[in-house]
Design a protein that fits this description.
Length: about 150
Amino acid sequence: MSDTRWLNEREMAAWEGFLEASSRVGHRLEQQLKDEAGLSHPQYEILVRLAGSPEGEMRMTELARLLITSKSGLTYQVGRLEARGLVRRRSCPTDVRGVFAVLTDEGREVLEAAAPGHVTTVRSALIDVLTPQELDVLAAGLGRVGRRLREG
């Protein structure tokens, strides 16, 4: 006998809506960033996190945790950004295993140029489609999901 709680029609509609919307929004953002800035969405997020951190730098392990990615995936993306001169790496002076990703001036300029198009796409693909009440419900619900998954 199975203990599986199958999704009812309402739950299935929510799940399928989430899957389609997240895939389509993600694809739209990826395409916009590629076309307008020559960046992948993960690369853009790396630049955003570094720009928002003190001194424009962050330990690679912390950056991977914040971006919810593997260390190897982050290393690959940072390597691509480094090849373009947008990020550089530096060793941690107090921990031989530690490495920092550091935003360069050129990286900050690329981010500043990419941000308006990115936010316009976020608005047109998601924010402006929803009413203020729907945005509140979405933020509360997805925030609760995120917290639950973070906690394990």
